[in-house]
Structures
1.
Amino acid sequence: MTPLGTIGSMPTVDKQIVILGAGLAGLTCALELARAGVKPTVLEREAIVGGLARSYSEDGFTYDLGPHRLLIHDADQVAEFQRLLGGELLHKERKSRIFLQGRFFHYPLQVGNAMFSMPPATTARILADYAWARGRGLLRPSADRSFEEWVESRFGRTLYEIFFKQYTEKAWGIPCSRISADWASQRISLLSLWDTLVKSLRKAGNQPRTYASSFYYPAQGGIGALCRAMAQEVESLGGQVLCGQAVTGINRKGQRISQVRAGDQKFACDELISTIPLNDLVKLNPRAVPAPVIQAADSLRFRAIVFVYLFLNRPAIADDHWIYLPEEQFAGNRLSESVNFSINNAPAGKTVLCAEITCDVGDATWNTTDAVLAERVSADLQRMGFADLHPADIVDIRTHRAPEAYPIYDIGYQERVNTVLAYGESLSNFMAIGRNALFRYNNMDHSVEMGRRAAQALLDRQDRKSAAQVATESQYFG
Ligand SMILES: Cc1cc2nc3c(=O)[nH]c(=O)nc-3n(C[C@H](O)[C@H](O)[C@H](O)COP(=O)(O)OP(=O)(O)OC[C@H]3O[C@@H](n4cnc5c(N)ncnc54)[C@H](O)[C@@H]3O)c2cc1C
């Protein structure tokens, strides 16, 4: 066992460490602490662990809350997950496509290829616009504040409208002119049209440098198997993982949090790690929070997703891990089949199809019935040409709703995020980590790394600020 650190004058092992949220960040932190002899308490709002990376299994089908590819670049981390899953971590080649104007294109978009698949007049317009955008960029560089400016100055207006505008506005529900350029720099891997043209004209090596062509995925139990295995180990080492415990309040003594409340349950607390949404943090003890912080938190919004699952009495309809549907005419943004991630995710000869429909909590889509949602997804499939899909193939329907799927990067969000995070930092025994607690559109591997660093900080082996520094670079995350 590794030597223990201290928190203040008391050894860490004797402290009450409470972790809010049993997703990858919270459970990685809990496990790292439990292995060092600490007995953390993890409080989770949902009935099961896993957070956004949770999975459901029923009637022989296993499906995730939207498709999840695990990207790990660190061999030790792969070995760790293999160990947790008893060697049942698959390594897979990825296949994703975009369905646009009645045709399939590779994903990530190889703009050069896509452009030359368009009618000649459109290709000519794309090239002319591109030349114009580059020329203008040399004379009068764009400030690139918004997503629209960022993409247009690199790709030109026509490509922006065909490939980027529709999907982005559908996913986020706000105009691209109000979305921060940060989103583009993290999610569009193609640096310039010239670059992609050169790459696409070469026979090999036409993938963007940052494109991950393979990923990991559990052979059994869906992506949620990772968190379930971690939770089990935390408990076997003496920690607690309590599901169905939505945290409703905190008590403070000065700048220290002394107690956490979940309904009528109370938990003494020497250290608090939060992975719950950043704007919910201030609601836990609003009277103690300065008004500008509450204002900043109130203006941070998350985009929600309704996940619609069709259990089909037929084999997979495609061999993709997912297919993007950028056009307005489709209800869904993306389709996926978990059986293409692991054949164990459906009974032989059957598949479960997941459609993600982005919306806002409480809007018409969020509130509509399962039957209506299933009809919309079936209509999408018909429009895509999967005409052989018969209504009788659909043996069951499920839906799940994620209220905080995507932090919305509207212009100015970073300043407001910093205001709320600074309030968190003013509390002496508090750390925020993970995707929604940092309001950062990060991947699973980032949340794992944040959880690890937070535990290391509590064990005195890492700076407390180090966990929040994960995934802050302007890099490609896709
Ligand atoms: C549709 C979709 C697809 C994705 N695909 C990929 C992918 O392919 N690859 C990839 O690497 N990443 C992907 N991600 C991102 C990935 O899911 C997240 O980065 C990761 O799961 C976040 O883990 P986390 O622990 O930071 O946060 P979360 O998973 O959000 O965990 C926070 C936990 O806190 C709980 N909670 C919230 N409020 C309270 C409360 N008041 N009290 C107690 N508990 C509370 C939540 O229920 C949740 O369990 C995807 C995300 C989405 C939405």
2.
Amino acid sequence: MIDLHSHSNASDGALSPTELVKYAREKGLVAIAITDHDTVEGVEEALTAGKEFALEVVPGIEISAEFPEETMHILGYYMDSKDQKFIDNISVLQKARAERNPRIVKNLQKLGLNIEYDEILKEAGSGQVGRPHFAKVLLNKGYVKTTQQAFNRYLKKGAPGYEDKFRFQPEAAISHILSAGGLPVLAHPATLRCKTEDDLETEIKKLISYGLKGIEAYYSDHTNSQTEVYIKLADKYGLFITGGSDFHGHNVKGIDLGTGKGKLDVPYEFLQKMKESR
Ligand SMILES: [Zn+2]
Ligand SMILES: [Zn+2]
């Protein structure tokens, strides 16, 4: 079993890259990809840990792309994580994140919540600050009963605490990954929330024209019928298939590395095919 979608505390995961690799090994996985949001800061440490614990580690990233109303994430695999141009390109996104977080605090304060940015920074520790940290603080302070409730009431798109942030257009996200020698993959196509299969196919054709190489067909939140549709489209357009859990450690409850919500099972063959397409 493998897992091609996981987050470390270089973004909003709970485990350090080394802990993540160690945990994958304990779970009996043979390969994982580290795909932190908008950063490759955890990649070197994960690669080193991979050697130490004899686990295949795939360098990766997950870039948020502009997609009106809904969520489009583009995964990238096998970029040269030391490529300075790539690092410069994505640093724009980290800056956008950093500017967004204090604005979320202001929104929450305006709603009458007693919350300070320092509390969020403390919760995040050394990693990138993200909405899961806000959710945790809201939970700890008793404003919500679960972190999910924190997202629903305050933090998700459209909720009163939400702040939008700069994102790349899909074309730019894909082109940055390609320029650094990486393979761009559409993450969890279900979050595009396309109304029909034809709409989804239209979006995927656009992404292919920018250079998309794969689709994340296996994912914790995909139903069997969704997965089937994504595989069908991948076959039709000669894209490879990937799969992963979107593991964040205890920051996102109910999703485990490798098995996702219990039924996920991504075969090594997927990684083999991805590597052959390089
Ligand atoms: Zn995602
Ligand atoms: Zn993710």
